Amino acid sequence: MAKKGLLIHYEYCTGCMACVVACKQEHDYPAGRWGIMVNDCTRETEGRVQVDFLPFPTDLCDLCARRTHQGKRPACVKHCMAECMFYGELHDLAKKMETMPRSVLFVPK
Amino acid sequence: MNEVTIFRTTAWSPGPGCHGGCGLELYVKDGRLVKVEGDDEHPYNRGRLCPRALALTQYVYHPDRFLYPMKRVGERGEGKFERISWDQALDMVEERFSKIKDTYGAEAVIFAQGTGRDIGGPISFLCYSFGSPNWVQLGLAGHSCYTPRLAAMMFTHGDYAVLDAGQFVPEGMDDPEYEPPEVIVVWAQNPAAGCQDGFYGHWVSDCMKKGSKLVVIDPRWTWFSSRAEKFLQLRPGTDAALALGMLNVIISEGLYDKDFVDTWCLGFEELAARAAEYPLERVSQITWVPAEDIAEAARLYAKAKPAAIQWGVPIDMGPSGTTIAQAIAHLWSITGNLDVPGGQVIARAAFDVTTYPFSTQELHSLYGEEFVKRMNEKRIGAAEFKLLKNFRGWGQPDRAVEQMLSGDPYPIKACWIQTTNMLGGQAADTKMHYQALLNMDFNVVVDCFPNPTTMAVADLILPAASIAEKESLRSWWSPLQVMMSAVTVGECRSDWEINLELAKRFNPELRKRFDTVKDLIDDRLKPSGYTFDELKDGHWKFPEKDTPTRPYRRYEKGLLRPDKKPGFRTPSGKIELYSTSFEEFDMDPLPFFTEPPESEVRTPQLAEKYPLVMVTGRRSPVYFHSEHRQIPWLRECDPDPTVEIHPQTAQELGISEGEWVVIHNERGRIKRKARVTPIVHPRVVSVPHGWWLPETQGTEPNLYGIWDINCNILVNIGPGDDSGYGGGPYKTALVAVKKLSQGEE
Fold first, then answer.
1. Is residue B366 a contact partner of residue B189, using CB atoms and an 8 Å limit?
2. Span B335-363, pLDDT tens digits
3. Is A17 in Cβ contact with B637 (below 8 Å)?
4. B166: closest CA among B126, B206, B218?
5. Cα distances (Å, whole numbers) of residue B414 to B67, B101, B405, B601
6. Residue B561's CB: how many other CB atoms inside 10 A?
7. d(CA B735, CA B680)
8. Are B654 and B726 in contact (CB under 8 A)?
9. Phi, psi dihedral angles at B148 (to 5 degrees)
10. Contacts of A52 in chain B (CB under 8 A)
11. Mutation choice for A interface testing from B633, B644, B684 by most A CBs within 10 A
C-alpha cells in the first residue's frame, strides 16, 4: 500500500490550535498528551516581524487510522480553520507541494 | 443501544461562547455528548471548527459546572450555597424583584449582560417584561463593543455593513454573484483568533487564497501583518487621525468614486474640508506611522475594486469611538464599496427575523415604538446622551455603575447578571464595580461555572444550559438557523427558558402567547415563513435574491427604505457624510480626532511617570473573554496571564522571558508573566484580558486571584464621550512595568 502522510502548508497556519484540540478529542488524550503541537516561530527578520506557526505532529500521530479507515479525513485536517493541512498518498502530496511554497511533508513512523 | 445519534445545530451559546454561527455535529451516545465535529455542509465554517467548540465535551461535563439552582446561605464571598428547586429559585426572584419594583420602580433593577451567545434576545425580553429600561452591559466602559460602530453606520448610511466574504449567498465564495475583495484592510483585529461580530475570522485567509491583498492597521504584529502589502503600526487610540489622513489622500488625489459620491452621498464638500485639516505630516506625528506609508495604504485601498475593511473592537474603545467608526465608514462610502460583491456589504438579520435585537427598528417591531419611547424616559444615560436615547436600548454602563453607588438620579437596588463574569472580565475599574454590586440588595447570577463574580456577589445562582442542551435561534446575519437540544445536564436550563418563565410571572399576558420556548421562537421566525421544526437539524435558510435582507446593490433597487424608494434608510435617503442625525444629537456631524484620556500629548507628566501604553484585550484562539480558563485542553495551549513586551523595552527594564513582573499605574498594580516578543511596539505593552485562576481559592479575599492579575484594575471607567457610546480606555491606559522586587509577591 502506498505510504500516506500529511502536507502542511504552513504559510497559511494562523496558530488557531484547532488541530491540537481536534486531535486530543479524537484520541481522547488527557491534557498533557499531544498528538500534534503548534510551534510559534515568530521572529524579527529583514527589518520586519514574521509571525509564523508550524504544526508538528508528534510520535503519537497515527494519521487518525480509525477515521481514515472509515473514509474520513484525519481530525486535524478536517478541522484546520485555515485549511492548510492535507492528507493523502505521499507522491500526490509531493506533487501538490510544488504549488504550495512554504510547506512541509510529514510521514509518521 | 450504543447507537450514536448526530444532532446538527449551530454554535453561539455557552460552550464556544463566541459570536460565531458555525455548524456543529453533536455526537450523542446513551444520552451523553461524546464528540463534536464541524458540519461539512454548513456554509459558515464548511466543516472546520475552533478549539473552543472542539473542547465542548470538557465544558459540558466539567466537574465545576453549576447543575441546579443555589441560594447563598453564608455571607457574600464565603462561597456557601445551598441547593434549591427551580420553583423556589424563581419564586425568590419574583418576590424580591416585585418588592423592589413596588417600592422604587422597575428601573431600580438592572439587567446586566456580557457579550457573545444569544443573550441579547432573552435578557432584553425579561428586562422589558419586568418593565425596567435598564438593559446594560454593566462594566463595559463607554459601552465600547460594536454599538459605537453600529451607531456610526446606522446614522451614516442607514444600515450596518460588513466585509463581504460570500456569507450572504448560498454558495459562498463560489457563488456566481460573488467576487473576493482585491484589497482587504484589517483594521484593529486579529481575525484568526476568534469569530468577531458574526464574522468567521478565517474568511479573511480564505479571501487571501483567492488573491485578496492586505493592508493591516494595528499596534501589534499579527499573522496578518506579516503577510500584508502594507502594515501600519499605529499608536493605540489614534485610529481617527489615521482614517482622516487616508480620507485626505483619497479626496485630494481624486481617488474616490465620483459618480457614486455625486449620486448617493451628501456632505462631500464638508467632509473634504474636514479631511484637509489632517495633512499627513500632522497625522504621522499623531499616529507614529510614516506619512508615506499612510499615503500608500490609502492608495492601495482606494484603487482596488472591490475593496473591504474588516474592523475590530479597538475602534469602539478609541476616544470618541463613534466618530472613529464614522470616519472609517466614510472610506467605504466615498470609494463606492457599499453593498457591492466583495466590498462592504449591507448586513441585515436574515428575513428580518430578530434574535438579539441589534437596532432600534428591531426593538420597535418587537415591543412597539410607544413602549420603547416610554422605556427611554428612565433609561440610564438617555437624558444626558441624545444619540444613546435614539439608538438601540442600552443603558449607559459608566453612568450605571456610578448610579449603583450614588442612587442619583434614582436608586438601583438589584442586579440580574446573566452571561457576564464582569469582575473577572469586562468591568473597567474592577474595584468600583465590585463595590457597586456589593451595594445591591439582591444579585442573581445566571451562568455555567463558578467565577469571581458568582463568588463575590451572587445571592442566587441559576445554572445555564450550554449549546448542547438548548433551543434557540440565530439570524446574525445569514443564514437563518436554529439550535436544538441534544442532551440534558443536571437541571440546567437555557437562558431563553429561564427568562421566558420569569417574564410570564411579571407579565401574565405572555402566558397566552408562549407556552414553550419553541412557541416564542416560532413567533420570532414569523417574518421568514418558517418554523422551528422546519429549520432544525441543519435546515438553515438564506433569503431569496432581490429581497431586503440579501445583497447586492439594494440601494438601487428600492430594497432598503420603508417607502421602497431607491436610496438609503437615512433621513435624506443619501449616505450622510455630514450627519444630520449627529447634528441633531448635539454631536459634531463630521469625524474628528481627539487624544485618548491619557497620552503622551494630553497628559505628558503622567506619561513621564508611566511611559508605556497598555493595550488590553488581544484575543487568544482558545478563550472567549473570561471563559474557558478551567477547560484542560484549552488552558494548556495558553496557560499563563502574560504581558507582551518588546525585547528592547524588556532589556532596558532588566526583564527576561518568563519572569513575573509588576504592571502599575495610579489605579493599582497587577502581576503578569513576561513574554518578550517583537510583535509589540517598544512603547506599548499588550496585556490579555479576562484572566482569573479557577485553580486558586475562590472565596474572599482571593476571588480566584483577580486582584493580582486582572488588567482592568488599571483601566478607568469610560468618559461616555459625546454620544454615550465609545471611548472605554481599554487600549490607552498608561502604565509602567518593573521587575518584582526581592520578596515581593
1. no
2. 999 999 999 999 999 999 999 899 999 99
3. yes
4. B206
5. 24, 10, 12, 41
6. 17
7. 15
8. no
9. -60, -40
10. 223, 226
11. B633
Other beta carbons within 10 Å of B15: 29
| Residue among B205, B632, B679 minimizing CB distance to A14 | B205
**How high is the pLDDT of residue B720?**
67
Structural domains of chain B, with CATH: 4-60 (2.20.25.90), 70-143+351-535 (3.40.50.740), 160-347+556-584 (3.40.228.10), 604-739 (2.40.40.20)
B4 confidence band (pLDDT: 50, 70, 90): very high
Q: Which three cell numbers stand for residue B414?
A: 438589584
Residue A65, C-beta contacts closer than 8 angstroms, at least 6 positions apart = none
Q: What's the pLDDT tens digit per position in B52-62?
A: 999 999 999 99
Residues in chain B: 745
ipTM, 2 decimals? 0.98
Contact B625, B690 (CB under 8 A): yes
**Inter-chain contact A25–B637, Cβ cutoff 8 Å?**
no
pLDDT in tens, B124-146: 999 999 999 999 999 999 999 99
Residue B34, Cβ neighbours under 10 Å: how many? 14
Q: What 3-state class would DSSP assign to B652?
A: helix
Task: Read off the C-alpha cell for A101.
Answer: 511554497
Residue B36 vs residues B52, B488, B532, B543: alpha-carbon distances, Å: 10, 16, 22, 28
DSSP H/E element including B533: helix B532-535
B638-656 residue pLDDT tens:
999 999 999 999 999 999 9
Specify whether the CB–CB gap between B134 and B380 falls below 8 A. yes
Residue ranges and CATH numbers for the domains of chain A are 4-106 (3.30.70.20)
Yes or no, beta carbons of A51 and B225 under 8 Å apart:
yes
